[in-house]
Amino acid sequence: MDPKELKRVRLVKRIAQEFPDGALVNLGIGMPTMVANYIPEGRTILLHSENGFTGLGPAAPKGQESQSIVNAGGQAVTIVPGGAFFDSAMSFAIIRGGHVDYTVLGALEVDMEGNLANYMIPGKMVPGMGGAMDLVAGARNVIIAMEHVNKNGAPKILKKCTLPLTAVGEVDLIVTDMAFIRVTKKGLVLEEIAEDTTVEEVIKATEAPLHIAGKIGKF
Amino acid sequence: MKPILTADEAVKDIKDGASLMVAGFMGCGNAFTLIDALINKGTKELNLITSDTSFPEVGVGRIICQNRAATLTASHIGTNPVSGQKMNSGELKVTLVPQGTFAERIRAKGAGLGGVLTPTGRGTAVEEGKQKLTIDGKEFLLEKPLGADFAFIKAEVADTYGNAFLPGATKNMAVVMAMAADHVILEAERIVQPGELDPERVTIPGIFVSAIVKATLPASNLQLKA
Hints:
The structure holds 2 protein chains of 2 kinds.
Chain A: H1 3-16, E1 24-27, H2 31-34, E2 46-49, E3 53-59, E4 77-85, H3 88-96, E5 102-105, E6 109-111, E7 116-117, H4 132-138, E8 141-146, E9 157-158, E10 173-176, E11 179-184, E12 187-193, H5 199-204, E13 210-218
Parallel strand pairs in A: 1-2, 1-5, 5-8, 6-9, 8-10, 12-13
Antiparallel strand pairs in A: 2-3, 3-4, 6-7, 10-11, 11-12
Chain B: E1 4-5, H1 7-11, E2 19-22, H2 32-41, E3 46-50, H3 61-65, E4 69-74, H4 81-89, E5 93-96, H5 99-111, E6 116-118, E7 132-135, E8 138-143, E9 148-159, E10 164-165, H6 174-180, E11 181-192, E12 211-214
Parallel strand pairs in B: 1-12, 2-3, 2-9, 3-4, 4-5, 9-11, 11-12
Antiparallel strand pairs in B: 6-8, 7-8, 9-10
C-alpha cells in the first residue's frame, strides 16, 4: 500500500472505532465509504442509504446487479439481511428527525465553530447539495473525514470558512491524516495525533487555534 | 379503472412549457418509456422537477441533454455534466434544493399543507429570501409546497386501478410526486387485473394515478454506473 493510502486507512480505522454496536450510520462518497470496511470485530452497524434503504451492503457482484438497488452515487449495490426499503420522504425523515446516529462526510473547509463547507466552489464546482445539508443538519453526530491540508498544502481547518456553507455549527468531530479534533463550545480540542506526527506539526498545519487535551492519544 | 394508453397517447397533452416531475434517483426508477416518448414528441421548454439529472443520456438525463428543459429544480446535478454546462451558459435556469427539503416540499403540495418548517439550510445560501420562524426556541426555514402539471412514475406492477408496486430503492421520489402532480402517468412493467396485486404490496395507491402505460423499454436500459 502506498503511504498516502496507508494514512487514509489509518484515518478511517480510527473513525470506525467511534460507532457503538447497532449504530445507524450514513457514509458519504469517497473516503467516508471506506469506514465500513474497518468496523471493529464484535460490533455491527447498520448503514443508511439516503435514496431509500437501511442495510446498505457491498457493491453487487458483476452480473448480479439489480436495476432497483443502487446507492446514493447510482452504483449497483446490495442490501444486507435485516435491511428495509422506503421512499425519500421517509428516508429524509430518518435523517432530519435525528434517527441517524452518525454521518461521515468529506470537507473542503471546516472551521472552529463547527461550520462546514463541502458542497460547492463558486464558478468551479456546483454539483448541488444533494442530501448533504439534511444529513449535516439532522444526524446526531457529524464526523468529518479529510486530509488535514489541501492539495497546495494550505490548512483546511480554518478560523472561518470562506466557501459557501453546507451547515452552521453542526460538526462534532474532525478526523484527518494528522489529527483527531473535537469541536466543543470553547473551540477545537486536539485529542489525538497520528503516530507519525507531532502536536507542533498539527498546530502548524491548522489555521484555527487548537486547545490541547491534557493527555494526547495516538492513532 | 384507469385508462391504459400507449406512451405516445399518454404524453400527447404535455405541451411546451409544462411542468413535469420525473421520479427516480440517478436513473434508478426513471420511466424510460415515457421519457423516450416525450423526447420523440419534441416537447420543449419544460419546467423539470427531479431529484437529480442522472447521467448524460440516461433516463431523465436525456431531457437535459436533448435541450428540452428551460428550468430545472433538483438537488444534485453533479453526475450529469451537461446540466452544469447549460446552467453556466444560462441556457438552463437551475434551482438547487436540499434533497430532504425537495421531498417534503412535494409532499406538502400533495398533502395540502401550506409549507414545511425545516432546519436544513439554516445559515447557508438556501435560506436567502425565505421566511424564518422560531418554534419552541429553534429556528426553521419556511419552505413552500412544490407541485407540477405532470409526473412520470415507474412501477414494476400496476393493477388497472393504478395501484402500484415499486421495488427496492425505486420508490425514492415517486411516492410524493404521485401525490403532487395534476396528471400522474404511471409506467408499469406489468399491468394486472384488480385482485392480482396484493393490497399489502401497494407502494402508491391508484387514486393518484391518471393513466397507465406498459413499459416497452427494458429496465436493463438503465446503464447503472459500474
